[in-house]
Amino acid sequence: MTIPHSLDGFDVRAAVARMLDQPGLWWQALGLFVEHFSAWEQAWQASIGDDAQECRKVHAVGSAAANVGAVRLASSAAAVEQGLRERLAGRAAEELEAARRQLQADFRQSWQAAADAWRADTPGPGGHA
To answer: Fewest CB atoms less than 10 Å from the CB: which of 4, 60, 71, 97?
Structure first.
């Protein structure tokens, strides 16, 4: 197993440090992120229109992103979550659509970078190792 020291869009060093400086633990978390969130974008898109449900989905991906060090994704998820919380509180959520577009782009980039790294080093279907 070759654990990457860097990954586009990720602060690997900080994520490994949060995981007791154990790169293997971060690598396992990254694999879980790839597997668990493979269909997240479709589920998120389907939740748009139900602010509470969307907020839960965005919070989940943002928390997972922060855990594995996907800093841009965590930040854009936080922006969408804040906008949704504003709307749930009855206030205007300016910039929510722009934040959603950024979240979509950041999710696609982060998930793909993680998936490519994980699959390149994972034996079996979809992997090359």
So the answer is: 97
pLDDT of residue 20: 95
In a 3-state reduction of DSSP, which class is residue 30?
Answer: helix
Q: Is 73 in contact with 107 (CB distance < 8 Å)?
A: yes
The pLDDT tens digits of the residues spanning 18-71 come to 999 999 999 999 999 999 999 999 999 999 999 999 999 999 999 999 999 999
Q: How far apart are CA 26 and CA 69, in angstroms?
A: 9
Report the C-alpha gap between 65 and 72 in whole angstroms: 9
Q: What's the pTM value of the predicted model, to 2 decimals?
A: 0.91
**Strand, helix or coil for residue 38:** coil
30, 68 contact by CB (below 8 A)? yes
Between 96-120 and 40-47, two packed helices, what is the crossing angle to 10 degrees? Answer: 160
